[in-house]
Write a structure and sequence with these properties.
Layout (H helix, E strand, L loop, with lengths): L8 H27 L1 E5 L5 E6 L4 E6 L1 H4 L3 H31 L7 H4 L3
Antiparallel strand pairs: 1-2, 2-3
Length: 115
């Protein structure tokens, strides 16, 4: 037991090192997500939206046959593709963040804080 109710110095050092590593990994992850391009498609495949891993829209691609349709059909197809791209980006970001923070559960915080 450390004196005066202070946490064990080696545990504190380990926690600090993990925090620094997570910060470095977070910067790297941000760069990877910025560079990642994901796609979402309408049900019929005639509308495609590209979006970054950080949910920044990258492009809209419409099949020429879709443009011959009524505006409501085009709008619905674009919305479907946008929703699919957004969902894929959100799921990718969440999975990558869980990978990054997975090591946090290994810290025994009550023992670190003298509890």
């Amino acid at each position: 037991m450390a004196g005066f109710g202070l946490p064990n110095f080696s545990q504190l050092t380990e926690a600090f090192q993990k925090a620094q590593q997570i910060q470095k990994d977070a910067v790297r992850l941000q760069e990877e997500l910025d560079a990642l391009v994901l796609e979402g498609f309408s049900e019929d495949g005639r509308a495609r939206i590209t979006i970054s891993g950080n949910q920044v829209p990258q492009g809209v691609f419409l099949d020429p046959s879709l443009l011959a349709e009524e505006s409501q059909v085009v709008e619905a197809a674009v919305l479907e593709a946008l929703q699919a791209a957004h969902q894929r980006s959100t799921e990718t970001m969440k999975a990558r963040m869980e990978e990054l923070t997975g090591g946090l559960g290994n810290l025994n915080m009550p023992n670190l804080l003298g509890g």
